[in-house]
Structure formats: C-alpha cells, structure tokens
Design brief:
about 325 residues; alpha+beta; Rossmann fold; Rad50/SbcC_AAA; Bact_Antivir_Def_Nuclease
C-alpha cells in the first residue's frame, strides 16, 4: 500500500447510495454484488478529485461513455450523479481516508447558478470553495483519459493517444508494456503507431515476421488486456477502476492474466478497484494473489441491497475470508 491509496470511503447521496461506507480497503479490491446494486456507481464515485474542474471532467467523461449528450456536455449534468435531487440545492458528500493516515471530506453542491466543491476537513492549506457555472460546457474528445475503464471500452482513439503521450517515448515504460503483453502474445516484438489513410492506429510487429499487424485484429480480449496494462502504467501512484474486468477474457487465460495484471499494478503502485460477476474470475484472482504472496493486499467487497429499506451496504472480506468462502462454497457475489 502507498500513501496515496484509499483505506476507507463514505458516500452520501451519490447515485445508487443514500449513505455507503466501505472500510478495510486495500490495494487489490474486487467489487461484487447483484445487478443494479451500484458496482459501477462505486467506480464512478472513485473518480473524485479535489480539483473541481478535474472532478467534473472525470464524471462528464464517464457520462459520455454511455453516449450521453453530444460533443459538449454542460456541467449542470453532474446532477445525474446525485441520488436525491432537491428543487433548489443538491449535495453529495465524499469522505476518503488514506494509507498515509490523512482524511479528506468534501461536499459537492449543485444549484441553478453554481456547481461548487467545499473542503469540510483535510490538510489543504487553501480551503476556499471552488466554483464553476453549471452552464459551462465540457468538450468531450476521443483523447480524454480518466482512471476508469468501462466494460465496453476497446480500441478507441484515446488508446492511441495514451500510448503516444505516455509510453512510446519512454523506453522503460515501453519495455514494461511489451513484457506484460507477451503473456498473451509470446512473439510480440514491438508496438508502433501507423497512419493508414491518415488515421493513427496501433500496430504490432512479431518475431520471425517482416510484416506488422493492426492491434485491433487480435480480438477484444487482447485489446482489453492492452488497455488494462497501458492504463496501469499511465495512472501509476494512484488508483484505477475497471468495470467487469473478466469480460472478453477466456477462463483458460485467467491465471496468466491475473498474475501479470497484479504484478504490473505492484510495480506501478496502482490501487485497483475491479467489478466482476464471474466465479471463475474470482477463483483465479484468489490463486494469483497466493502465488504472488500478497494476501494482505487483497480484498473482496460485496454490495448488498436491503430488500425492505432498499439501501445498499458494503461487506469487506479479507483474503483469508475470501479464500475460506471459496473453499466451503459460500456465495459472496450478493443477490438473494
């Protein structure tokens, strides 16, 4: 765990959650739960940033992933992340505790004339409210990069941009990425950017071949792995959220996949929050954690809805508790 990593969070009035508390968070966190219980909402809440403009751009980019709006989204649309919208003023509370034993407590407020972020507690020297007009527009572009990977994100233009800006000219990072990708493409020799018809694409050269191949032809699974690895490297020393991490990954690849993914996160000091429904994915996560010897850094967090009150609670399992549940066949994925 690094000082930038979260150890607990509280969310009030954010999307699915009236009041959600999660404690005993560690570096590798599997988020489990039934459909529509708020797993994706939790990942979106973790896009929080104490800079108001960055926070708004993160959330609005997440909205754009759902084909919301057009090329420009007004800041007032932050309201779609609020559970209970009041007629005049609506608030969301974020409270984060960090491994460095610091805390941050913020209130995001939206009304007809203002979007503001107020620091309630923390170690900031400057605690003035940050404000922005709700009519301000955020121009969505294909190269917007946020530490959140939705389950359907594949070979978009932002992937080329990420590689160009953060990997291509850094020899150490490039070698690290190629080494990680060799788990699924053993003959991989190099990754470059090509411009067929003037449009940049990623291409791969392989050992014992004089030709290059577009990355996109390697299939959705390879594309997802490429994105996972590249974004872990890009967002080093912070956190990365991945929705439905198992999608597109064949079960026979889970052992290699988890091993290299977790190792890459360790090398880059990245805290991972990952959702899944897949029992095999959970079992191979358990196996990879044991092989890496990082049991103290693994958690499973199950979101459960109270069928009477319809509020959502979080239950955190240590690695030993997760391992025991898997061994005896206890269901930890939520649902009724």
């Amino acid at each position: 765990m690094q000082k930038e990593h979260l150890t607990s969070i509280r969310l009030d009035n954010f999307k699915r959650f009236d009041a959600l508390e999660i404690e005993n968070i560690s570096q590798f966190n599997l988020i489990l739960g039934d459909n529509n219980v708020g797993k994706t909402s939790l990942l979106e809440a973790l896009l929080f940033n104490k800079n108001l403009n960055v926070l708004c751009e993160n959330l609005l980019t997440a909205l754009s992933y759902k084909n919301f709006g057009g090329p420009a989204i007004r800041y007032e649309n932050i309201k779609y992340f609020i559970r209970d919208i009041e007629e005049n003023t609506s608030n969301v509370l974020f409270k984060f505790d960090y491994f460095a034993q610091t805390s941050e407590n913020y209130q995001l407020t939206i009304d007809s004339s203002n979007v503001s972020l107020h620091c309630i507690t923390g170690l900031l020297n400057e605690k003035k409210d940050q404000n922005v007009s709700p009519s301000k527009e955020f121009h969505v572009a294909g190269f917007n990069s946020i530490p959140y990977i939705p389950f359907y994100k594949g070979h978009d233009f932002d992937l080329v941009n990420l590689y160009s800006n953060h990997i291509q000219k850094n020899r150490e990072r490039k070698e690290q990425l190629i080494s990680a990708l060799r788990t699924i493409a053993p003959d991989l020799d190099n990754i470059e950017i090509s411009l067929p018809a003037g449009k940049p694409i990623l291409v791969i050269s392989q050992k014992h071949s004089n030709s290059v191949l577009p990355l996109a032809i390697f299939g959705d699974g390879a594309l997802k792995l490429f994105r996972f690895f590249i974004e872990i490297i890009v967002f080093r020393n912070t956190r990365l959220m991945i929705d439905e991490i198992d999608t597109g990954i064949h079960y026979s690849r889970f052992t290699e996949f988890w091993g290299i993914l977790l190792q890459t996160a360790i090398e880059n000091n990245v805290q991972l929050f990952m959702t899944t429904h897949n029992k095999e994915c959970i079992q191979y996560f358990d196996k990879a954690i044991r092989q890496l010897g990082c049991e103290s850094d693994a958690r499973a967090i199950t979101l459960v809805e109270n069928p009477k009150e319809h509020d959502v609670k979080a239950f955190t399992y240590t690695f030993d508790q997760l391992n025991h549940a898997l061994e005896v066949g206890n269901e930890i994925r939520g649902g009724y």
